[in-house]
Design brief:
By secondary structure, this protein is mainly alpha-helical. Among the domains are: about 90 residues, Potassium Channel Kv1.1, Chain A; about 80 residues, Serine Threonine Protein Phosphatase 5, Tetratricopeptide repeat. Helix content is about 60%, strand content about 5%. The protein has 13 helices and 3 strands; from the N terminus they run αβαβαααβαααααααα. Helix 3 crosses helix 4. The radius of gyration is 25 Å and the shape is globular. Pathway: Protein modification; protein ubiquitination. This is BTB/POZ domain-containing protein-like. Keywords: Coiled coil.
């Protein structure tokens, strides 16, 4: 019989198509399922009315990227990003607690965000409104930290997925340590898998030596994962006698 997609011949029990086309269709179906889940997640995140329906912004977020000099008020000169209380409250339980109670930020209409650049803060607020952001590796890293701090789970997952897709030999060790600090399991697993696959080359790198000095606990975890993999591989290779 002949496949209707590529006109190649196939066996009668091959589900109406050749093996290659069947596998390609299955991959496409999985991609569509993932896209649908991503869209459902985004819709769930964006539960508020469009920002166009909201009144003028009623508070400001200030980016404080470094400690201010003595006798200097950082809020008078720090770049500010306007936002709506309703948006922040609906996106972040941390902002909700801050703004629905009689805290200083609620009374003043100003929220100080420490250790963040203006561009990162602006991208963070933009995401809270749209669930969209342009990422590079630096931006993903900075936004993941903010997302964790303010418990914006959708953004954290989005950044973690991006960072996981960029894991390579050059950044695997740094990403492994970063993932540990910020409870990012998907990123941690991807980085650890790459490290244990390339132990001979990665353990001579300078960043690995720095990890040994700064956090030997993580080095122990790397070797435990590596030895476990070696044992499992050896067990699979054992040929039992007949």
């Amino acid at each position: 019989m002949w496949c209707q997609s590529c006109r190649e011949e196939y066996e009668e029990d091959d589900a109406g198509t050749c093996k290659e086309c069947y596998e390609e269709a299955s991959e496409t179906e999985e991609e569509l399922k993932r896209e649908i889940e991503d869209l459902k997640s985004k819709v769930s995140f964006l539960r508020l009315n469009s920002p166009l329906d909201l009144p003028s912004p009623d508070l400001f977020l200030h980016a404080i990227s470094s400690p201010p000099p003595p006798q200097h008020d950082p809020l008078t000169s720090a770049p500010a990003v306007p936002a709506h209380r309703a948006v922040l409250i609906s996106r972040s339980p941390v902002f909700r607690a801050m703004l629905e109670n009689e805290m200083e930020e609620s009374r003043s209409g100003m929220i100080k965000i420490n250790d963040v650049s203006y561009d990162v803060l602006r991208s963070f607020v933009h995401y809270l409104y749209t669930a969209e952001v342009l990422l590079d590796e630096h931006m993903a890293c900075e936004l993941l930290i903010l997302a964790e701090k303010y418990q914006v789970k959708h953004l954290k997952a989005f950044c973690e997925k991006f960072m996981t897709s960029k894991v390579n030999n050059e950044n695997a060790i740094a990403n492994f340590a970063f993932a540990h600090r910020h409870n990012s399991k998907q990123l941690l697993d991807a980085a650890l898998s790459l490290i244990t696959d390339n132990m001979a080359t990665l353990t001579v790198r300078e960043e690995y030596k720095e990890l040994v000095e700064k956090d030997p606990r993580l080095v122990v975890e790397i070797y435990e994962a590596y030895l476990t993999r070696q044992v499992n591989t050896a067990a699979r290779d054992i040929v039992l006698p007949h």
